[in-house]
Amino acid sequence: MKQRARWVRLQYRFESAAADAGIEGRAAAQQGAELRNPLFDLLGALHEQGSIQRAARASGVSYRHYWGALKQWEEVLGQPLVTWTQGQPARLTPFATRLLWAETRARTRLAPHIEALRVELARVLDEALDGGQPLLTVFASHDLALPRLRDLAAAQHRLHLELRFAGSVDALHALAAGRCTVAGFHVPDGAGARTLFARRLKPLLEPGRHKLLGCARRVQGLMAAAGNPLAVHTLADAAAAVAQGARFVPRQGGSGTRLLLDHLGAAEGVDVARLIGTVHAEDSHLAVAAAVASGHAEIGLGIEAAAREFGLDFVPLVQEQYFLCCLRDALDAPPVQALRAVLSSAAWRAALADLPGYAADGSGDVLALTKALPWWRFRRAKKARAPART
Question: Residue 327: phi, psi to the nearest 5?
């Protein structure tokens, strides 16, 4: 008998606060808005808590209510969601697990865009209530600490940071085009004058015209499943694993992390094009982590904080400095002065200390390009020798 196709319409609720815990909390770890759906609330709680009794308690409902909701969704979907084994607690079926992870990955991809919508709505509302609130537009490479910086700026100085995530190269292009006042980008230690980072970023930065603000130091490395089953410890190990059938999930072109991948590949003699193959590129560190955690890929490159959010193993490869860049003439503008005060505050240092792999190294310092980056090394002209007397 041929089974009839089922069309299921999933409705979401938009909320301005992140979920408290669970897989959905991971997807919302950018400290902003999120989408809620009752089906995935149920599945996520059971996945995290390990039993229906604990999941019901964590959800604030009775066992009977939780169980009834699961049975209703099984009827709607036409598929079992829970499996039972004698003497063992209830577990999600393979179908429910695949469904949950597919939704988590999609939600994680959407998180920066949903957050941008929330920020824009908040800005319009703030302008309506108090048109005098200062505004600072920031285009920045994806980072888990920057939403915390935005929240501190609002709390400490009533400064509205209009934060938009873009790749490092794209953020600096936005600064050059006047679409933002501050651009965020990151550079690994040891990226000298002849490296790919210098070739890509140096043309976008001009000594004397641009100034850097120290923001944070963070760690980037390889993400792998818990226990690192492929024993990946270097990029060359990752390439060898891919040659044996593993999948490596990359970041999008124009991002600082994709630039880092190319930089490391050149240093280790790894063919990056073969490494990434045809795997879909992700737009954020969390999306890379979600792809690995869900089994969509086995290896990825990203920051430690994102790997820890999803319970992944993390192999550190490089320390890097995250900078905020502005024009020299903007340094004394009140919004930038307020931003500098937040970066120098104890609250910002505490926020960074709470994120794995982050440190407040020179946060708030105003830096010249020629001192902060090793790409400009001007040789002093040799004095001309005086003509020999005859």
Answer: -70, 150
Q: Which pLDDT value is given to residue 385?
A: 52
329-384 pLDDT, tens digit per residue, is 999 999 999 999 999 999 999 999 999 999 998 999 999 898 888 787 644 444 44
Q: CA triplet 156, 162, 165: central angle to 5 degrees?
A: 120
Residues 103, 34 contacting (CB under 8 angstroms): no
Domain-located, residue 1: no
Q: Residue 221 belongs to a domain with what CATH number?
A: 3.40.190.10
**Separation between Cα atoms, residue 235 and residue 188, nearest integer Å:** 15
With a pLDDT cut of 90, the percent of the chain lying above it is: 49
What is the Cβ-side half-sphere exposure of residue 185, based on CA atoms within 13 angstroms? 31
The DSSP line for 155-212 is: HHH--EEEEEE--HHHHHHHHHTTS-SEEEEEEETT--TTSHHHHHHGGG--BTTEEE
Does a structural domain hold residue 171?
A: no
8 Å CB contact between 59 and 65? no
Q: Rounded to an integer, what distance in angstroms lies between the CA atom of residue 90 and that of residue 372?
A: 55
Q: Model confidence at 13, in pLDDT bands (50, 70, 90)?
A: low
Say which residues have a Cβ less than 8 Å from residue 149's Cβ, sequence separation at least 6: 161, 215, 342, 343, 348, 351
Q: Tell me what pLDDT residue 37 has.
A: 77
How many domains does the chain fold into? 2
Q: Within a domain: residue 198?
A: yes
Going from the C-alpha of 210 to that of each of 100, 138, 230, the distances in angstroms are 45, 15, 44
> 338 vs 38, 155, 217, 360, CA distance in Å?
41, 11, 21, 18
Under DSSP, the state recorded for 270 is -
- Whole-prediction pTM value? 0.73
- Is 360 contained in some domain? yes
Mean pLDDT of 74-97: 80
Same domain, 226 and 349: yes
255 and 184 in contact (C-beta within 8 Å)? no
Q: Write 124-130 long-range contacts (CB < 8 A, 24+).
A: 126/160
Range of the domain at 80: 13-103
